[in-house]
Amino acid sequence: MSPLLLAEESLIGWALADAGLVLFGVTLLFVGATLTLTILLRRDPKLVWPLVGLLTIQIMLLIGMIVLDVWGAREMATLGAVSDLSTALATHRYLLIQLPFLLMVVAETTLIVYGEQIVERHARPYYLATILSVWLAFAALVAIGMESMF
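and the corresponding structure tokens:
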């Protein structure tokens, strides 16, 4: 028989031990729902408000990931190695995690400002900017996940 799901050697037990990994996985799940809603947004403008809610949740999850990463690097500063902390926070991973955060904030702000009129003809550039922001944020999250694997 296989070990219990929460045993020390199991994949689930390992994932639950790393809060950043759990937050990243949940963020990817919510991004999948957001991508689906962006595809359906043209057909039903009332999907704007659930989309705003999903984007808010994703922004909070990204803030949580950033806080966990900085909290983990905090020990370097307490040991007096401020230059090591500076180089640790200037890596491509820390710089790349800012991209989906900023893109989701832009998409959410645009959706809040335009509301259900985002699908009308006069708001077409803003609609396209919102869709592009969500899809680029997804691509950035996939890039973060892929670079963590190698």
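(Above: one complete record from the training split.) The chain has a mean pLDDT of 82.
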